[in-house]
Write a structure and sequence with these properties.
- This protein is of the alpha+beta class.
- It has 2 domains: 8-104, no CATH class; 109-162, bsu07140 like domains (CRO Repressor), CATH 3.30.240.20.
- The protein contains 7 helices and 4 strands; from the N terminus they run αααααββααββ.
- Strands 2-1-3-4 form a 4-stranded antiparallel sheet.
- It is elongated and about 75 Å long.
Length: 165
């Protein structure tokens, strides 16, 4: 690890073909997206799933190019560009095509109906009674019976519709 001259050609050269890098990045993006879409809503926080996948994979792709583990900056740029392409395309398609939006964004999952918790739906999201009650307290509601409906939204937040007073 000397302080000698830098081989700029090697730093920016592609170590794989652009097509191979595109296929690798596309495959990882779509596989990670499908896995996260099928898993917990609450795992992604306030980011949409495709945005979370994008940030996660860009970080991984950029990290490999930055530390130089058999990946040139040029290859890292192709990978990041491919990920940006898929993120943009899925965002645009979900905005313009309702069918795609339904595929990408999970529907709200009801966890309270008519003042009663729905244990099956809560189990599906690993939402405990204590966690749900905590969310209600944050909204100033001290009793589940005061809630008409509550849902886990696509972004992982819990929306609450109290009974009218």
């Amino acid at each position: 690890m000397g302080m000698g001259p830098i081989d700029w050609g090697a730093v920016f050269a592609l170590d794989k073909s652009v097509l191979e890098l595109f296929v690798r990045a596309s495959t990882m993006y779509l596989v990670v997206f499908v896995i996260l879409r099928a898993v917990l809503r609450r795992a992604s926080g306030a980011l949409a799933t495709f945005d979370f996948v994008f940030v996660l994979l860009v970080a991984i792709g950029a990290e490999s190019a930055m530390i130089g583990e058999q990946t040139s900056i040029g290859s890292g740029l192709v990978m990041v560009g491919t990920l940006a392409f898929w993120n943009y395309l899925l965002n645009a398609l979900s905005f313009h095509v309702p069918f795609i939006e339904r595929l990408i964004t999970p529907p709200p999952l009801q966890v309270i109906r008519d003042g009663r918790m729905l244990p099956h739906n809560m189990r599906h999201e690993f939402l405990t009674r204590a966690e749900l009650e905590g969310h209600l307290r944050l909204r100033g509601i001290d009793d589940v019976a005061k809630v008409k409906n509550a849902y886990i939204e696509a972004d992982g937040t819990i929306s609450v519709i109290p009974y009218e007073r």
